[in-house]
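job 3f2a | input accepted
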Amino acid sequence: MTLFPTDPKQIRSRIRSYERALKKEYDLYGAYDDGAGKRYLLGSLYLLLNDIEAALKHYIWFEKSFGDDIGDPLDLLTWTLVLYRAGDLEAALRKLRQAMLSNLYLIPHVLRIDQPELDISHLSNLETREYLGYIPDEIVRLWDGETLDWLRASYHQAEIQAVRERYIAIKRQLKHEPVGETRSRLVHEAFALRSGE
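job 3f2a | predicted structure (197 res):
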C-alpha cells in the first residue's frame, strides 16, 4: 500500500499541510480533534526524509499534546525506528514493546514471520491482522540491514517474548471473561503491559 508521496518536495508539502491543519484546530478550539489522524503520520513523513531531528521534535510535541493517547501501530513502529536511528536504544526498545503490543501481527509482518490469526479479543481494527494491509511498504522498507537485525534480535529477547505471551494470554481470556472484578484486573494488567508500566 502507498500512503505517502515519494518526492521529497511533496513530502515536505504534506508535512506543512498537516502541521497547519493541526495548528488551526488548536487555534480554533484550544484542543486537537484530529479525527483524520494526521498526528500519526507526521513522524513517518519526517522519517521518509531521513530528518531524525525533526521527527524527534515531532514526538516530543506529540507526547506533550497527546500524553494519554494509546497510539497507532504504524506510528509506534516509526517512532521505534526514529529512536533507534537517534541512538537511544533504551527508549527504542520501550517503544518497540508498545508497537508490538499495539498490534501483535505488526512486528512479525516487518520481520516476515508468519503469524496466524490469534484467537484473542481484538478491541479495535488497529489490533487485527487486517490492519497490516494499511502499513505502507515505504515504512517497512526502511527496516533493513542493521535496523532489521536490531529489530529481530530485540523482538526475540526472552523478556520481550515473555511480555508478548502474557499479553496474548490476557487477551485470550478477555475474549470470554464476563464483566466483573477479574475482567477489570485483566484489562488493567493489559494496559500496564502496553504502556510499559
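job 3f2a | The longest helix spans residues 8-29.
job 3f2a | closed
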